[in-house]
């Protein structure tokens, strides 16, 4: 594409040169009252065919996608344009200054340039549009941006590239699409580690990995370390292994969608130290630690507000620990029509969270139960299933 533009520009310059020659010749001839028709004919013979070719030929397409290879870190404020494919070719590629990504940009990651990490004073702001998203994908993905790797027809698969690591900084993604990431020990495509924050809104997270290692669950989007003001809304998680992992302080509304993920659920770790709201009801919140503690010394106002239809699942030997009793939960805490507490193996509520189809079934004592520290007892509510205390053995 760039070569076509260069050739076209040289044709224009050459045409202008010949036209100037003809004009000068005519002016000089006019002064001399003696037009040299032979010279004029030669010049016209050179110009007219070229004008014909330029007028009949194909002009450069202003909408044609440009390909830019990224081989250096970003060290000053940078904007990546729309209608451009950026191919990451640098190993350990760092965004050390603000990077703004415009609608229509496609970012492809290669084997040698598999990751993007925010460092120093860096940040990422990627604002696509509903009909012109920003795409992050694999080099082999011909479905987005065409055959960039010049290998003919090829298709990508989960784990073809690594991840974007926000790395204690800020990254905001709106109308963005993430495909085929997770080539790292944790299977993560987009990581918000400790100290990081940002927003994910109207995005698509599709065909990525995620990983389970013992009782550690890493989502394709891993926000276990993100600050409590991190938000993720109106986002589709489709065909990932594990879609999303968060820490317990992060509030989740009910606007996200989960389709055909191997492990259906939002996988949670840590404690609730402030006021947190969970409203997602399409899949369960799966607590992956041993003690979902709400409140504690110095956290008397800690509270977990639960929306209608919320399901919370617990792994083996796990429990919920209410430091101040039921005041740590919203008023609907014991209403079976609104909230369910159950086993990780219970596919009847919130779908197949353990990813084994029908291979396992829930049973009594699958998890420990809900403990009220202020009364030193386990509760027995009708909406608790398959624990060691409330559920019939």
Total number of beta strands: 32
Instruction: Compute the number of helices.
Output: 2
Distance between the amino and carboxyl termini: 71 Å
How are the strands of the biggest sheet laid out side by side?
4-7-10-13-18-21-23-25-28-30
Report the sheet with the most strands, covering strand number, pairing sense and barrel closure.
Answer: 10 strands, parallel
The rough form would be described as: elongated
Radius of gyration from CA coordinates: 30 Å
Mean pLDDT, all residues:
88
Q: What portion of the residues fall into strands of 2 or more residues?
A: 25-35%
For the record, the count of structural domains works out to 2
**Unreliable runs:** 1-15, 22-28, 30-35, 50-62
Helicity range: 10-25%
Structural summary, described in words:
With 393 residues, the chain is of the alpha/beta class. The chain has 2 domains: 2-56; 66-378. The protein is 13% helix and 30% strand. It contains 2 helices and 32 strands. It has helices at 2-32, 37-56; strands spanning 66-70, 78-80, 84-88, 93-95, 98-101, 106-109, 116-118, 123-127, 134-138, 164-165, 170-174, 176-179, 190-191, 197-201, 204-206, 211-213, 216-218, 221-223, 231-233, 236-238, 244-247, 257-259, 266-269, 275-278, 285-287, 291-294, 303-306, 310-314, 319-322, 339-343, 369-372, 377-378. It has a 10-stranded parallel β-sheet, with no helix packed on it. A hairpin with a 4-residue loop joins strand 31 and strand 32 (377-378). Helix 1 runs antiparallel to helix 2. The protein is elongated, with a radius of gyration of 30 Å. It starts with a helix and ends in a 15-residue tail after the last strand.
């Amino acid at each position: 594409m760039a070569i076509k533009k260069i050739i076209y520009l040289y044709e224009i310059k050459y045409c202008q040169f010949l036209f100037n020659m003809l004009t000068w010749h005519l002016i000089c001839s006019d002064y001399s009252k003696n037009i040299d028709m032979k010279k004029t004919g030669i010049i016209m013979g050179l110009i007219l065919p070229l004008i014909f070719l330029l007028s009949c030929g194909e002009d450069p397409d202003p909408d044609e996608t440009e390909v830019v290879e990224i081989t250096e870190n970003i060290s000053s404020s940078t904007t990546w344009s729309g209608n451009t494919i950026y191919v990451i070719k640098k190993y350990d590629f760092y965004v050390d200054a603000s990077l703004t990504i415009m609608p229509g940009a496609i970012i492809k990651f290669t084997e040698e340039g598999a990751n993007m990490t925010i460092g120093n004073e860096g940040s990422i702001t990627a604002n696509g549009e509903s009909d012109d998203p920003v795409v992050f994908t694999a080099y082999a993905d011909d479905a987005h941006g065409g055959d960039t790797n010049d290998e003919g027809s090829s298709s990508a698969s989960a784990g073809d590239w690594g991840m974007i690591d926000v790395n204690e900084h800020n990254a905001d993604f709106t109308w963005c699409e993430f495909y085929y990431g997770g080539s790292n020990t944790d299977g993560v495509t987009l990581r918000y580690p400790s100290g990081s924050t940002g927003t994910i809104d109207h995005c698509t997270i599709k065909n990525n990995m995620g990983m389970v290692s013992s009782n550690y669950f890493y989502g394709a989007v891993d926000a276990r370390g993100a600050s409590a003001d991190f938000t993720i809304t109106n986002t589709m998680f489709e065909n990932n292994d594990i879609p999303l992992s968060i820490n317990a302080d992060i509030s989740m509304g009910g606007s996200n969608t989960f389709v055909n993920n191997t492990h259906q659920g939002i996988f949670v770790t840590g404690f609730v130290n402030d006021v947190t709201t969970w409203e997602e009801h399409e899949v369960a919140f799966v607590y992956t630690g041993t003690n979902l503690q709400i409140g504690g010394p110095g956290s008397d106002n800690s509270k977990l507000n639960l929306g209608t239809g919320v399901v919370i699942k617990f792994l083996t030997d796990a429990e919920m620990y209410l430091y101040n009793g039921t005041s740590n939960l919203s008023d609907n805490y014991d209403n079976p029509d609104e909230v369910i507490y159950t086993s990780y193996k219970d596919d009847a509520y919130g779908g197949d969270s353990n990813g084994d189809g029908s291979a396992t079934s829930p049973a009594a004592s699958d998890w420990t139960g809900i403990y009220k520290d202020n009364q030193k007892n386990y509760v027995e509510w009708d909406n608790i299933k398959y624990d060691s205390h409330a559920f019939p053995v």
